[in-house]
Specification:
The protein is an alpha/beta fold. It contains 14 helices and 13 strands. It has 2 domains: 215 residues, Rossmann fold, CATH 3.40.50.720; 191 residues, Rossmann fold (3-Layer(aba) Sandwich), CATH 3.40.50.720. The protein has an 8-stranded mixed sheet, with helices on both faces. The chain binds ligand SAJ.
């Protein structure tokens, strides 16, 4: 009698992954999901990207990328040969074998986590059936999310995790604009709900990552990501406080930091700035402090770092007011030109950018604020009715004060130093050029 050989779900899935027959689903085709989709496509898989934003889906259908790190030249051939598809319809996920969830995890106004996008994705995946699939959450979130929020929704139909479906957490480490590390060269932390979940997730990501880094649980993997970004937020907060200390002591914080950075071990350089922007560092640590509050613990470093970092725009504005005062000018009515409004150099992302706070605070003081940023044509998305001005010698000379907020590589700092009557430099962009009392540093 022919023995019917029933492959376990895990064995079948592992085989599909090995032979690249597994169909890959990505939920959330943003700055994390799209590069991930490209990586799986380049590894030989067929990929289906799901996004609720029809504009993103139609852009992908046209072979046009909206993510800085993915060019049309890379994207288009995969779309044209059908290896990369996109849809707004979650029902299309019934055809895939694995699903990586790469949706936003913002904060509410109350600084509490907003996991509504994760819940929505989990409920839609469960609705169309997670049976037989490997589901991996990549979005940054508090420890416990995968097993408290996603697991019950996928097991709701009686399916058993680790047998009927597989569930893991693997934090994204996509760093927009970075070229010295790629998805392949960046180790990927992976935690599974069960050993079989971990095994399948490691097999999947081994197709696109040189070194998977398995850990003992999904919560451990969730905590790893929060440690990474909290580490940055706290150290940026420390160096910002050192800037305030150096100001009080009449020391140049940039000289102090550069000299400390000569230590070849036991020190990691961070630099002061006008505040902390972006969609990761100012937000992620609050996921951790929120979770700890639920177990009656106060994450003191996180709260203190947030307090110091969020105060930096006020400090910058006080520097501008003092610099104008030194020219016997009131901030009220002064023409202030901001150079660089993106949250960090050489990108066009303005989310949580400290420049927005600086502009708002200066406008509150009656200053006539304009800005230039080669990557940011206007600030309408952030509620400001101002556009980037064309930068010229006249524009620099006519400003009462020029404020360097984001030191894009595109700027000619010698020219800015020569033509600007008064400068507040929050990034040491001028590095001591032509000081003659007209340049104020953090
Ligand atoms: N900042 C400082 N001083 C510093 C470093 C950063 O003021 O020494 C400011 C930046 O200007 C920016 C904010 O902090 O406003 C965040 O900067 P970031 O360098 O952390 O850049 P992000 O937000 O793009 O962080 C990403 C993160 N990557 C992922 O989450 C996958 C982070 O983990 C990376 O370490 C970081 O990029 C990186 O190293 O560039």
């Amino acid at each position: 009698m022919a023995v019917e050989f029933i492959m376990s779900g895990k064995t079948e899935l592992l085989q599909k992954i090995e032979t690249r027959q597994a169909r890959i689903g990505i939920v959330g085709m943003g700055y994390v999901g799209l590069p991930l989709a490209i990586a799986f496509t380049e590894a030989g898989f067929h990929v289906l990207g799901i996004d609720v934003d029809a504009a993103k889906v139609s852009s992908l259908h046209e072979g046009h990328s909206y993510v800085e790190d993915v060019t049309d030249e890379v994207l288009r051939p995969f779309v044209q040969d059908g290896r990369l598809q996109a849809s707004t319809d979650y029902a299309d996920l019934t055809a895939v074998d694995t699903i990586s969830i790469c949706v936003p995890t913002p904060l509410r106004k109350t600084k509490d986590p907003d996991i509504s996008y994760i819940i929505d994705a989990a409920e839609k995946i469960a609705h169309y059936g997670g049976t037989g699939k490997l589901i991996i959450l990549e979005s940054t979130t508090y420890p416990g999310t995968t097993e408290e929020v996603i697991l019950p929704r996928l097991a709701g139909n009686g399916d058993v995790v680790g047998q009927d479906f597989f569930l893991a957490f693997s934090p994204e480490r996509i760093d927009p604009g970075r070229t010295d590390h790629t998805i392949w060269t960046t180790p990927k932390v992976i935690g599974g709900v069960t050993a079989a979940c971990l095994e399948t997730a490691v097999a999947l990501y081994s197709a696109i990552v040189e070194r998977p880094a398995p850990v003992s649980s999904t919560a451990a993997a969730e905590m790893v990501k929060l440690l990474e970004n909290t580490f940055r937020a706290v150290n940026i907060g420390l160096v910002n406080e050192v800037a305030l200390m150096c100001d009080k002591l009449g020391l140049n914080v940039w000289e102090v930091v550069e000299a400390a950075a000569t230590k070849p071990y036991g020190f990691m350089k961070f630099t002061p700035g006008p505040g902390v922007g972006g969609h990761c560092i100012p937000l992620d640590p609050h996921y951790l402090s929120w979770k700890l509050k639920t177990v009656n613990y106060t994450a003191r470093f996180i709260e203190l770092a947030a307090e110091v970092n969020s105060h930096m725009p006020d400090y910058v504005v006080s520097k501008v007011v003092d610099a104008l005062n030194g020219e016997r000018k009131a901030s009220n009515g002064s023409r202030v030109l901001i150079l660089g409004v993106a949250y960090k150099p050489n990108v066009g992302d303005v989310r949580e950018s400290p420049a927005l706070d600086v502009i708002h605070l200066l406008q509150e003081r009656g200053a006539d604020v304009s800005y230039h940023d080669p990557y940011v044509p206007d600030l309408a998305s952030e509620g400001f009715d101002i556009q980037s001005v064309a930068l010229s010698t006249a524009v620099l000379q006519q400003a009462d004060c020029v404020v360097v907020i984001t030191n894009h590589n595109a700027y000619d700092w010698d020219w800015v130093a020569e033509q600007s009557p008064l400068i507040v430099d929050t990034r040491n962009a001028l590095k001591g050029r032509k000081e003659n009392g007209r340049v104020f540093h953090l």
